Structure prediction request, 567 residues.
Amino acid sequence: MSVLIFIDQSEGRIKKTSYEALTYGAKVAEQIGTEAIGVLLGTSSDELAALGKYGVKKIHHVADANLNHLDAQAYAAVLAEIATNLGAAVIVVSNNLTGKAVAPRLSARLKAGLVSGANALPDTSNGFTVRKGVFSGKGYAHISIHTPVKIIALSPNSYETRSGEGTAEVVPATTAAVASKVKVVSTQKITGQVPLSEAERVVSGGRGLKGPENWGMIEELAGLLDAGTACSRAVADAHWRPHHEHVGQTGGSIAPNLYLAIGISGAIQHLAGVNRSKVIVVINKDPEAPFFKAADYGIVGDAFDVVPKMIAEVKKLKGI
Amino acid sequence: MKILVCISKTPDTTAKIAFTDNNTKFATEGVQWIINPYDEWYALVRAIELKEKDPSTIIHLVTVGSADAEPIIRKALALGGDEAIRINSDSSDSYTIAYQIAEIARQGAYDLIFTGKETIDYNGSSIGGMLAELLDIPFVSLATKFELNGTAATINREIEGGEETCEANLPLVVSCQKGMAEQRIPNMKGIMSARTKPLKVTEPVAVEALTSVASFELPPAKAGVKLVDAENVAELVRLLKEEAKVI
Prediction:
């Protein structure tokens, strides 16, 4: 028996969300009295043994370059084989973009119940139940898994990474070759920005900013806070900002530690994409803006007055 | 070419979320139901666009739900699609739902299956992947762009910090999100024709659920906003650093 944790990489580098999955998986292993084992697919330039500090004793590494790019079909086949060989009782993956493709396939392949978007440790006092967010952040559901093998897809930024001492034994693993049927032909990355899906802090702008020419201060503040930038639907639809920055019901859904909303009224559709943020700060000149009801901190004021002041204060704080 | 579009009925975005029966059921009283926005705006509309390009394309819609899902599927048919299939099951277990759709997909021998990236009620993002595995065909998730040339598809999908362009051959399952298509509003002709389009009802096949909902709960209420004066931005920055510890 074991808890198997899928370690996700991009261009050979381990993703931050994998550290969360490793920490979480090690805790689950402790809870059910078994060992935590990591599994990495594809070649990697990172020091894998060091991942032991998150609590895994062993890492199975399938260093096959054919697995460097995500193909959910190939990934699920390889992971299923390893999980079966190791007799994994629980499989943990991050419910990041890769996890959303792989976990459901793995679930169907192994006939193993899946909780996707889990945000707490399992409750094993009576069966095996895991809490997850439902209704776009407006509720939680406790889902019972009835199958011998359980799959948990952990919501990004919902479980704090903890590290201690320890190194993991890296075990080269081979599996039957699986040809990828999805071929990646090109990658378009936005450079020089914190990716929204990985950002711990996000600075977001709405129509209150009046036009795309006023985003300089949003980007400056985001840069100072090491934050990603986002926007409301109205802004994306008006082509003031690229679509990938749109957060809300029909855009991206994020859960950073800090969400700073500037000039966004906070319609329920917008909140659906950001209400899982740990701390919400709203700057809006309309005291009646619905966003204030969902906020932790707020300033009723004009963005063009408040944001430059905030930039100055953050600079002061950072000694710039 | 035959396209299957998976449609789900979800509570309207603005619906009040509450639970009944000792927090084991979603309180549906007074709830407005809509087509899951990702299924409608992105999956269905992209399928319709493909049919507009190649009118020989056949689009079928499928939903897993009880009879009260029919107004939603008619609404979807008003946007487009040739016929709809409702599988008469109110299961909330993703595997059960995917298993039912897989049965229909096998019978219909579809070249392409579109789903929304997730439903706005269970936020599972699971049906597409499970379906692809059950059918043993490739799955491209979180697609923002889809082009077809014969049986070769070129698809953009979201990755951390950007997108990547992939190629794959039909048959395929694709989960769709923003970028795939633009929202449409059904016109009168569509609404009229939807009334007479075939809507077949089939009974579910036997399958054991892998999961079930034990209970629901509401997230803890926020303590309320702490307002800081616009003249005192320094105080906000201090609070974020010292109290909230987020900067």
